[in-house]
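Dear colleague,

Following up on Tuesday's group meeting, I ran the structure prediction for the two-component complex that the binding team flagged. I've pasted the input sequences exactly as they went in, so you can double-check that nothing got truncated or mislabelled along the way. The structure tokens for the whole assembly follow below. Feel free to forward this to whoever is handling the docking comparison.

Inputs:
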Amino acid sequence: MSFSGAVKIAPDALSDYIAPSQDCVVALDGGRVRIDDLGDAGEVAVRSRRSAPETRAPTGEAVKVTLSDCLACSGCVTSAESVLLEQQSVDEFLSVRKRLRSMGRGIVDWNLGVIVVSVSPQSLCSLGKVYGLDKQDTWTKFSGLMRDMGAYKVYDISGARDLALVETYAEFVERANGGAPTPLLASACPGWVCYAEKTHGELAIPHMATTKSPQQIMGTFVKSAVARDLGVSPDRVYHVSVMPCYDKKLEASRDDFMRGGVKDVDLVLTTGEVVVLLEKAGLHHLREAPNYAYDLMCDGFRVPPESEIAAHFVSGSGGYAEYVFRRAAAEIFNTPIMGAIEWVQLRNMDMREATLTVNNEVVLRVAVAYGFRNIQNLVRSLKMKKCKHHFVEIMACPSGCLNGGGQLPAPEGMSNKELVDALDEHYRIVERERNRVDVDFLYRAWIGGAPGSQPAREILRTQYHIRDKTPVGMIQLGNNW
Amino acid sequence: MGGEDLVGDEEDFGTRDAGETERWRRTCAIEGHESEVKSCGWSPSGSLLATCGRDRTVWVWEAHGEEEFECAAAMHGHGGDVKRVTWHPTEDVLVTTSYDESVKIWREDADGDDWSCVRTLGGEDGNGGEGHASTVWCASFEPRALDDGRVGTRCVTCGGDGKLIVWNGKGFCNTDLEFGTSFECGHDRAVLSCSWGRNGLVAAGGGDNSIRLYGEVDGTWREVVKVENAHDDDVNHVEWSPHDSSLLVSASDDGTVTIWRLS
């Protein structure tokens, strides 16, 4: 499993998301497409395991696998990463930039389009830690780099993440009031979503929170509010998001996140790909990038409730569990949490639980489950109807999003574990200092309704699909495979 | 030893409906693998179960009573179909063999939080060491207590390249392995299964329908018994009895299981 072209990622990084485990089975003649044998041209050659020479599809044309094919097929658990690279790559970004004749630094051909970038706090954390820059410098240098690379606006996704928390809690309350089955599963992780849809659709989907991920909330915001502000139609806004995760490329490609043929997020670059972009800009260090201020989702900050601050302070993966626990404790059980929540480790470090006891009775159980094995155990407990949790924050990567497959590798001499610990610490400091956008204002001015209201549901929520096991995915190959 | 022979006692075990019978009750179904599950095995402590399969993954499950299993690790690392899981005879250390031509050793991390691959022998990531040149089908540890009183410390693997490789144990309880010796065996097709007996002999069964026994004579491995056409089709599995050191069982694509007595 290797990545071609300019993308460099640590071999270790590949093992921390749910990796494609089988050769792609999408092919016209029933032959298999070998993921690891993709040609440079981005064409997918059909090859069978035992016949060494390459065989082309009958038409003479190479079979092309698109991301939509990947999403619809159950041949492998996640995507063909080569397909992702072809359609969601640094080269694709550069070619779009060229097409839009986007010089950056405010020079835009409005007839062609405008590039807007939004970046995840986990990516900034990774860049800051590896390049040894503080929070402010990381931000302004990143913003400067992206503007040099053609971006007209550069946003922080944190604001969208705060919206995701508030809307997820609204969903939690609705479900609790409506007597829906527990647990509610935070489903911002595309690795989890893809796995759940393909392998446990009927079982898992009724439990999956429909609140969009921060990336997709930001996408909706950019293609509506930002486009409106700039006075261009959504299809003239080319939205690039920077993420710690390869599977976010897949998420952005879902049909659910396309309105009127326009994608909310056009391209996803990983943190690692930002470094490739840096090199393409002829820079050796992020420090060499110009300083440039970043853009805000709305004017005016606010002092957020403690639950919101604590959520990000405690978790590098969005803080859903922490947030829901605090608000539910205070608002449903009238037992506000003072100080830190006691997270008890269950079977390993990536499986933790917090419980609220009122009158000697456990009334609230919230858990964090990271990594494939804990997802397995969770799904298993769902299946056996033994899951006691009311809410679970699921992430496919061990240690969560800070350890995403798209993050920068550990510098020489540092183990991945040490890097994750260092990122975690750095993240906490950054999150403490972060200014908060006014979520209430965004609900009022952008969404036009309160959390959980009809407009909020339309704008902030999505849906999931059971992916049937397709016959092509069930092809049995001989020869002891 | 040259005069010894294997005497077969064939039994057709036939087929039986899956699920419940009078004597067997299904207590638990473990799901997680994406496609065919190739092999499973209990750890020496009995508290762990390992599985592997075509999805290239190796899983370790922790038993909580007989009806509850939790996934302790789901491990990627092999580049192809994982054929067999083999536990070390005394320690909870796992050896896997794969289509990717490698043998991997897995163990729990020092902090007890997860499992990982600690060594790869052969294959692309095999650190340039010697290994198999084709699918590695099976591994078998030398029994700790051999009939002649010696303590076994080694492990044997067999492959599609028609070779057997003996790996020398080193490190803690000989749970780490390094290349010892490799020898061509008489099989002219893939060697699909091997088993190291208490009698010191390595039994091997293969795609050429034969079962062969190999013995170490003055440090050199030699074929000591050969049963050509032991079965009418591939011999998928051979295994020495852990209690009776002259008893061997074999399973074949011809639909039969045969018990052999070394005379």
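The interface with chain B takes residues 1, 14-15, 19, 21-22, 76-77, 199, 347-349, 372-374, 376-377, 380, 383, 398, 480-481 of chain A (CB under 8 Å).

Cheers,
M.
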